[in-house]
Amino acid sequence: MGRRPCCDNSGLKRGPWTAEEDQKLISFILNNGIHRWRLVPKLAGLMRCGKSCRLRWTNYLRPDLKRGAISEEEENQIIQLHSSLGNRWSKIASHFPGRTDNEIKNHWNTRIKKKLELLRVDPATHQLIINQQPERYDHGHADARPQAEGKSTDVSEDEFGLMHSSIWMPSDRSSNEEETIPQVKSSGSCSSSFCASSMASALDTEETKLCYDSFPPWEAMYPFEDLVLHGSLL
DNA sequence: AAATCGTACAACCGCTATAGT
DNA sequence: CACTATAGCGGTTGTACGATT
């Protein structure tokens, strides 16, 4: 008949924690330590289930938590770890003392994922999205403009064209090469890596400036060799 | 000023892993 | 070995709040 629920929900409080509840939980744990979460709410005088108490403690009340915004450096590291570990948030979080898996997962889902999508990198595979328009750009029109968080952008027709042509596609490609893999030109500082700077300059709009200002160097994130190995440029 | 929309994040749900009996 | 209890994990939802209309 399956597992019993972690707790009997009848009569138990749910939803946001109050300062009073927080205080009760903190003082109980500091005085008694953590032994059995199931017993914690009873002993601490809380109308919560043990699971809720554990989550509240680990994600919010733990004294060793590092509160505050996730830095660019941390974000960079998260992306790298995600590319090798996938959605194993607890593993990723273990590299960031004071950060919780929930915090990193939320940050990934609300910010990093969107930035990657904006730059046409599949957040799941970390490969370039080359054969389709990103869904969030496509509002039913083939030439839908990139939009950030529902706001219209300053990306002009030409800039948008650049985004889809000169950055990824060889300038002299024929029309039936539309669905083929872009070539990465081997010149200058972009010789062996995905040239983020040229892409950034092509997308030199307020929105993309904001994006790049808080985004790690792409050369480091997605080196050309990796893209080839993962099949993006094959 | 009010209504609506979008975002960020806390919290919950359900499943799996592991320890204990 | 089988079963149960508990902790941990990842996906998803709910909601507060700021921005926009």
UniProtKB/TrEMBL annotation:
Region (Disordered): 131-156, 168-188
Domain Myb-like residues, every copy: 9-61, 62-112
UniProt keyword Metal-binding, yes or no: no
GO cellular component: nucleus
A Pfam family: Myb_DNA-binding
Listed Basic and acidic residues bias regions: 135-154
Segments forming domain HTH myb-type: 9-61, 62-116
InterPro entries given in the database record: Homeodomain-like_sf, Myb_dom, Myb_TF_plants, SANT/Myb
Location in or out of the cell: Nucleus
CDD domains: SANT
Gene Ontology biological-process annotations: carboxylic acid biosynthetic process; regulation of DNA-templated transcription
Source species, domain of life: Eukaryota
The UniProt record lists the keyword Transcription regulation: yes
UniProt keyword annotations, A-Z: DNA-binding, Nucleus, Repeat, Transcription, Transcription regulation
Gene Ontology MF term list: transcription cis-regulatory region binding
Protein's recorded name: (wild Malaysian banana) hypothetical protein
Species assigned in the record: Musa acuminata subsp. malaccensis (Wild banana)
